[in-house]
Each structure stands twice: as structure tokens, then as C-alpha cells.
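I have been asked to look over a protein record a colleague put together. This is what I was given:
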Amino acid sequence: MRRGVSWLSRRTAILAVLLSVFIIVMVAGGIVLSAIGEVSRHANQLDDDRSRQTTAGAVKTFLSQLGATLNDYAAWDDAATYSYSADGMDWMISNFGEMSENSALFDVALVVDTRRNAILAYHEGAPMKVPADQFFDAALWRLLDAAMASTENPEARGFVRTTRGIAAAGVALIRTKTGETNRSDDDRRYLVFARHLDPQVETLGQTYVIKGLHLAAPDGVEQNYVAVWDPAGQVLGKLAWPSRAPGDISYSSIRSKVIGAIALFGFLLATVFAIGLMEMRRLRLDEEASRQLALTDRLSGLLNRAGLFKAIETMIEDARSSKSDVALLYLDLDGFKEVNDAYGHGCGDDLIRSVSAGFRFLTPEDAVLARVGGDEFAIAFLRKNCDTAAQSLAGMILNFFDEPFQIGERLVTVGTSIGIASSQIGTINAEEVVRRADIAMYKSKDSGRGRYFFYDTSMDNDRETILALESQLRKAIAEKQLSVVYQPVVAASSLEITGAETLVRWNRPGRSPVYPDVFIPVAEKTGLIEPLGIFVLKSACDQAREWPEIGIAVNISPVQLRNPSFAAQVAEILQSTGIEPARLTLELTEGYLIQNPQRARQSIERLKALGVKIALDDFGSGFSSIGYLRQFGFDRMKIDRSMVTDIDVSENARSLLEATSALARSLGIPVTAEGVERESQAHVLLDCGCDELQGYLFGKPMPAAELSALLVEQSTGACIVQARKTA
């Protein structure tokens, strides 16, 4: 009996000591976590203050840029002449109204008199459909009054509300460069430029590195924002952003380590009482291992698709009881198919293993990692307010793919596109969470790859729209409802037509036309770009037989360039139409060159072996470099219209184009300039060394019959360009 009492006493004492140690560790851990939490809150506040200052500066810069543009146009000798002239309307439309189309500087242009009458009113390159006083609120006229009242600097700017949203607006007296008008006060005219803020918010966020920047309502409840005021002091809206909470991220990382240390101590305590249960657990683990094997991907060692669904279902049940959220990241490797095609499936398998090892290192210990398809992975975890943790993990994963993978003796470069979805408090089942994350992942791919998107309901609508458009486009290709138009290309020295660029148009019977920048991406995503591209190429070559004196250019998609049989398709079309290969120029952009330079070079070499020419299109609009020009041996370089727009009014623009043209000449590459709309631009481009010009000055995209008529006029010696200008 005494031995029993002694044993009970010793056990009680041991338990008391263990309990005391446990309490001490818990209290110490709580104090450490509390201190770290205070530091994290301070870090969050500093980050929010920085973002607020940056956003305020962005708003001020946005308005200042508009003011600088307005001053350039208003204080202009030609403007002072034509704006007050009785026959100056065409000049104002060309230089003010039409310049608002696709402009990065302004999208609304008005010319008003002192009685607020709109002499000219254009929006996005077209006349306004509503009167100016209905399009703008009263704040615009306050700016006009301020400009009229100013004698030294007759300009005013500020934010106003329009029927399209919030816009930066400026009003300036139209005058000569020296500031003279030679007009009475009542006879003066004022130029109004406006640039809408709403569509520029995402760009501002990217430029100033403010993630999640968005425009909120004036009465919206926002934690972080900068108000946008009109001249009367009224709040038009708020530029708001979610807190990045860097302190919370650090706190979460450190907290898991502290909690892990406490858990380790608890594990040591539990081990004392677990020895007697080891055999039972071994039997149970054997059974569990058999079940787990059925849920495991054998190549990577990660969970497979079935294992992922089971894990998410368990997490969702836990989320309901703990009032937490389940986050799911769905990842697809960018460029994996090209690796398989180029180096074989063995290299692809090794790449999957390397990627899996990297994901194991990056994902939290409590997360679920799975390989759900050939090159698709998924990561799920349970958190309270999981969006911040999901965003942080997505950023780390994207950084992980910045470096190439060493696979044997090869360096392999791939990327990833990520979609993120969540089940808030376990309210969405596993199947729906996976579906949403998958949709968000495809949104990432469609938006340029190498990025992440959170799911929102609009993506379902976008997908339905794309599916409907895909069905209509498939039918249009099959039934030949598409048409081809041609835009002239002229020699810079003689202005004679030397070639034509082929463009495709889709005018649906009984419905509004679909623009190329809408249906071309749909065709690329759905695989329809190949039959569409072959249709355009064959149409161009058929038509080129009637124009033996000029060359013909056709744009090709990266999807076509990736197709190993594309060169054979081009050869077959050349043979069937009978045109000389040297008359055909295939134009491509740099996107695929960046992603797969080796395969792109092989594809280009196969095409050039046929005798066709290869042109680098849109040079200057992206990451074009000297390396591409040297590496791929292009036969022509086409300068993007963004480099041409201000060539006749900006010394910087002219210097940049002169340097670009000199670079091309040094490499023996002829240069075509796109987007030429004014004679002054054409003169400058000729002086800079461009040998061919293309743009509305020489003709918009037109049916083949119209271009044939122009070629007939040219053959008779008529001045084709002058005829088009006066028509």
C-alpha cells in the first residue's frame, strides 16, 4: 500500500513539474509573441504611410502630366492661327480631336469660347455624343473661370467628374508660344483636355508598386486611401489599396517557429506516455500508408488529384469549426511543353522532380502540396484571413522561377501562372474551390503568364463570353465570314507604294463587328489561330498575284511559330499560289523570342530557308534589344507607332528614333515606321533613315479593290498620297 501511495506521489510530483514547465514555456512564448506582434503592427503602419505618400504623389503627377500636355498644345503658334480661323475646324479635329484616340496623354479634347460654347468636342477620337455641359459636371466651368481670370498664366487644372467617371482636366487659353493672342477678352478661345483616371488606376498601381490600388466611392469605408478632390473641395472618389501588412507576414513566420518550439516540448512530454502505444500505432500507420499510397503521385512523391480533394475536404471541415479560411493556389508551369518537345520526356520528368522539391521548401509546414496533372500543382492551407498569406506565398513562388533549373548538363527556363481561390469559413466545397482557382490560373495565363490572380465572379462571366465568342469564331472561319484588308506601305523617299500589310476583319452579319484585339487573343487561346492564320496567309498570297510590283506582309502568331509543320504549310501556300517567296514578309513580335529563343531561332531558320523574309514587328513597344536583332537575323525592323507619335514635336523622341535607325543600319536591317499620320512626321522619319512608311497618312486598311485602284493610279504617274489627302 505504501509502495502504491509512493508511486502515486511520484507520479503526481512529476506531473506537477511537467505542468509547471509547460505553463512557464507557454507564458514566455506568449510574451515573445506579444512583443513581436507590436513590432509587426508598427511595420504595417510605416508601410501604409509610405503607400499613402506614394499614392498622393501619383495623383499629383497624373494631374501635372496632363497640365504639361495641355500647355504644349495650347501655347502653339499653329493653334493660335487655326483655332480662331473660320476654316480651321479641320485642323482642330486633326490636331486636337482625333489625337484623343488611343492617346496615353488625354482622351477628351474641347475648344470652348468665353460663353462656355463648345466649338469642338471630341472623346476618344470621335465627336462627343452628349453636350459638353452634360458630359462634365460644373467643376469644369470653375476651371474655365479660373483660367479666364488669370492674366500671367491663363491656365487651370483639377479633377472633375464626367459621365465616364473621374478625370483630370485642364483649361488653357489658346495662344502663341510667346503668350500673345491678339484677341479681345470676349473673343478668346480655350483648349480643354481631360484624361480619365478610372482606366489608369491599375497602371498607376503597377508604376508606383502599390498592389491592389483601386478607385473607391467617396463614401466608401476604406482603411487606406487618398481622396481625389474637385476644385470646389468636393471628394470625387478615393484611391484605395489593401494593406500589404509586411509586419504580419514576418510575425506569422516567427510565430510558427515559437509555436513549433512549444509543440516540440509538448512532443517530448507526449513521448513519455506514448511508448506503450507504439505497436498499436505501427499497425495503424501501416494501414494508413497503404491508403496514402493510393493518394500519392509516384513521379513527384506529392499528393495526387484524389489526395488533394480529400485534404481540402478535411480542411474545409476544420475551417467551419475554427472559423478560419481555406486558401488554394493552383499553378501551371509556363513553357513545360516546350521543354518536353525540345529535350524529351526524361528531361521533363526531372524538371517535375526539381520543381516539386522547390515547392516543398517554399510551402508552409501545415500546407498541402499536390501534383494534379502533367505540369499542374496545387497548394492548400488553413488560415484566418488567408488572402495575405496566399499573396505572400504566390510572390515567393514567382521569385523561385526567376532562376533557370539545372537538369543534367542543361539549363532549363520555365515559369508559372497562379490562380488563387478561397473557402471563407468553409462555406465553399472542395470541387468549387478547385474550379475557381483553375479559372483564376487561366486568367493569369491569358494576362501574360508569370503572375497570379485571385478569383472573382467576373471571371466566370469572362469565360462564358470567351466560350461564346470561340463558337462564333469557329463558325466564321468555317463559313468564310472573315475578310482581309490591306494597308499600303510606301517608300519614304518617293512615297510610292512598295508593299501592303495584310489584316483580318470580322464583320458579323446583322451584328456589330468584332475588333481584332478581341478575337485574335480568343483564337490564340482556343487553338483557332492556326486555321485563322492560314486563311489570312493564303488570302494574302492569292491577292499578291494581282500586285506583282509590290511585296505583301502577314502577321504570324507565336502559336503558329511553335508549330513544327508551319514552315511546310507556308511552302505549300507559296507553291499553290505561285508567288515568289521573296515577296512575302512574315511579321512577328518579340514575345515568343523571349520565352523560347532556341526554338524560335529554329523556326525562323526553317522559314528563311524557303526564301521568305522575316520582320520584327512593334520594335520599341516592349523589351526589344540589340541581341534579338543580331541573334535572329531579321530582314526588316518595324518601329512601333508609340515611337513615331511625337517625332515631329519632341526632340527626345527624334533622338531616340535616330539612334534606333542608326542601330538598324549598322546591322544592315531596313526600317519601316508605323503609325505615320502627319506630313511632318514623314519628313522627320525620312531624315532619320527610315526607308519605308506606313500609316493613315498614306491610307487606312482597305479592301483589295481600293488598293488595286491606287496601284493603277500610281502606274499612271498620279500623286497617290496627295490624292488620298485631298479625297
Summary: The mean pLDDT is 86. The CA atoms of residues 5 and 11 lie 10 Å apart. The first helix runs from residue 2 to 74. The chain has three domains: 55-240, 294-456, 477-722.
